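Thread title: Can someone regenerate the structure for this chain?

I was given the following input by a collaborator and told the matching structure tokens would be attached. They weren't. Posting the sequence so someone can regenerate them.
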Amino acid sequence: MSFENVRRYFVTAGLGNRIIVPEKSSATVEEAANAIGCEPKQIAKTMSLFLEEKPILIVTAGDARIDNRKYKNTFHQKAKMIPAEQVENTVGHAPGGVCPFAVNPEVTVYLDVSLKRFAFVYPAAGSGHSAVKLSLGELEEHSRYVEWVDVCKGWEIDGQAVS
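Best answer:
Regenerated them for you:
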């Protein structure tokens, strides 16, 4: 149902042709990059967390990891992942297909600056066998994000690691 909600959303938005449904799994960054044919860092992975007991999503580049210090400086609390068994009910998508589209109404979406180095990114589209190709402007528009944040480490700009 989750994939269908996302597909319907993008068809209505005139971007249905951007949805990719590979034969192979796209549930992890590496699987998605192999299935789609892009670099792992271009996969826009969506992290599911609780912020003051409210669900948030942070969309990051595939090569980025949450930096606990940066996260705490930004959100004034420790990063707290949503337990896997609660993700689907809380966010609206199951693990492996979590994306910032067609989510439950109480979910707030943030975009991490690690994505800003790409013209196009590939977030999931509601299942572990889907993705959607979007420009950063399209990601901003369709994710209904509230803010760009800098909460990750481990990614590179021009060969230099950002921490």
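The chain has a mean pLDDT of 94.
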